[in-house]
Amino acid sequence: MKAEDLHSYYCEDCEEWTCIERLEFPGNVHCAYCGVADVNISAVDYERLKEWVRACNESI
Question: What is the pTM for the complete model shown?
Fold first, then answer.
């Protein structure tokens, strides 16, 4: 799997990136290093998530 296929989140507490393969619960991601739940989604993944939600809403 390529790095650009992973979803990445940044933790401001420990200043590390957490990357996950499947984004099942985007609002419930914890830092893999320190366990903090307040991580920030990368801008690229945020745009991917918005497109996915838009596509889901159009199919309803």
Answer: 0.70
